[in-house]
Automatic annotation (TrEMBL):
The gene is mtaD. Residues 24-48 form the Aminodeoxyfutalosine deaminase/Imidazolonepropionase-like composite domain. CDD domains: ATZ_TRZ_like. Its EC number is 3.5.4.28, 3.5.4.31. It comes from Thermosulfurimonas marina. This is 5-methylthioadenosine/S-adenosylhomocysteine deaminase.
Length: 438
């Protein structure tokens, strides 16, 4: 590997709050960005450094998928347009009870291929058999914050809860100080985890200085169940149990009162907004403008591919923006800049990757490159608007994480896409046979 390189393109967008640079370049040493500026200037300053010219393209900070269940690609399209509980109890849970480690591994690899193609460089993943997701992540070379989903009931991944906590602890130890992988403690939700389980999870996270991730206030049903069972809404429930804090990252947060939004902001809790999953499952629309106004850190996630049905964070940005504008009959809410902030810097911070999400000196060289020779990405009046409102997954041509190219000229270098699709097709056949569908 070359220690130093200079990459240039017609456009460089250093960050959500910076002006795009025409004919820009980035000087990278090992995994870090040393300098960003006009290509001409950087070439003169570093004449001995090899230049990689990406041509008519836009270099932008790699996107952060702040909530997903990557391996659920194997369930994509399996059962559609059903009420959530029917979908879960008649399809997903029965198949998941037979889940095997190699299904998780190949499902995650397929997901990572897809995510690279939409410019995702970091991902937050919760699932079962998570060590096999970690294996896929290590092969792919992306950055990830992940953990084993913890439930009260026995899991096919680890058996009884105590084993799940032990597995999480083993992973926390094994990956302490890893440059790209962060292990998080991940109790699934307030309706699948008892107060005792949640407290155990919080204690474990505290002991290792780890982050916590949970689904929270996703549906009205979750809120009413929580009220019935514990006499308080999910946010208050977590507050009483001592989980609300800066190390807590929650997914969805659709059903929030004004007071709950204030509380999340005050406690420094971050939220992964997953608009397409919320729409598809008929859960509703999160109050993103109110959360931002109150100072909540809002990030963007795709959620699992079985409820989206893709892992395209570029289209998720567009949906997030359009949804609020339409709902409020106001085109000025959630401007493109704010959306990009959620999908880059805020996502990185929520996952604990402090030096990611911007292309600036001292930051990790995590970036993606948009092909500007496509008809759907011309002309270039405003590169940032093009990225948020016009770009789709297939338009990403290159991806770099920690100074290493993972995808170049549309070819994924670290994973074998064809082999992966082949394996997943075989798994899908097994799933259909089990469900008596073919
Ligand atoms: Zn989820």
């Amino acid at each position: 590997m070359r220690e130093e390189k200079l990459i240039k393109a017609t456009w460089v967008l250093p960050a959500w709050d910076r002006e795009p640079l025409y004919q820009g370049a980035i000087f990278i040493r090992k995994e870090r960005i040393i300098e960003v500026g006009p290509a001409q200037e950087l070439r003169e300053r570093y004449p001995a450094v090899p230049v990689e010219d990406l041509g008519e393209a836009l270099i932008f900070p790699g996107l952060v998928n702040a909530h997903t269940h990557a391996s659920m690609t194997i369930f994509r399209g399996l059962a559609e347009d059903l009420p959530l509980m029917t979908w879960l109890h008649e399809y997903i849970f029965p198949v998941e009870s037979r889940l095997r480690s190699e299904w998780v591994y190949w499902g995650a690899k397929l997901a990572l291929c897809e995510m690279l193609r939409s410019g995702i460089t970091a991902v937050c993943d919760m699932y079962l058999f998570e060590p096999y997701v970690i294996r896929a992540v290590e092969e792919a070379g992306v950055r990830a914050a992940l953990g084993e989903g913890l439930f009260d009931f026995p899991s096919p991944g680890y058996g009884p809860l105590e084993e799940g906590l032990r597995l999480t602890e083993d992973l926390l130890r094994a990956f302490a100080g890893h440059p790209r992988i962060r292990v998080m403690v991940m109790p699934h939700a307030v309706y699948t985890c008892s107060p005792e389980t949640l407290k155990k999870a919080a204690r474990l996270a505290e002991r290792y200085g780890a982050r916590l991730h949970i689904h929270l206030s996703e549906t009205a049903e979750e809120v009413s169940q929580c009220l019935e069972r514990y006499g308080r809404r999910p946010v208050a429930h977590l507050e009483v149990l001592g989980l609300l804090g800066e190390n807590l990252h929650v997914a969805h947060a659709v059903e929030l009162t004004d007071e709950e939004i204030e509380l999340l902001a005050r406690k420094g809790v971050s939220v992964a907004h997953c608009p397409e999953s919320n729409l598809k499952l008929g859960s509703g629309v999160a109050r993103v403008p109110e959360m931002l106004e109150a100072g909540v850190r809002v990030t963007l996630g795709t959620d699992g591919p079985a409820s989206n049905n893709d892992l395209d964070l570029l289209s998720e940005m567009r949906t997030a923006a359009l949804l609020q504008k339409g709902l409020r009959r106001d085109p000025t809410v959630l401007p493109a800049r704010e959306i990009l902030r959620m999908a880059t810097e805020e996502g990185a911070r929520a996952l604990g990757f402090e030096r990611c999400g911007r292309l600036e000196p001292g930051y990790e060289a995590d970036l993606a490159v948009l092909d500007l020779t496509r008809p759907d990405l011309a002309p270039v009046h405003d590169p940032l608007a093009l990225l948020v409102y016009s770009a789709r997954a297939g338009a990403v041509r290159e991806v770099m994480v920690a100074g290493q190219w993972l995808m170049r000229e549309g070819q994924i270098l670290t994973l074998d896409e064809e082999e992966t699709r082949h394996w997943v097709a075989g798994i899908a056949q097994e799933i259909r046979e089990f469900l008596g569908k073919s």
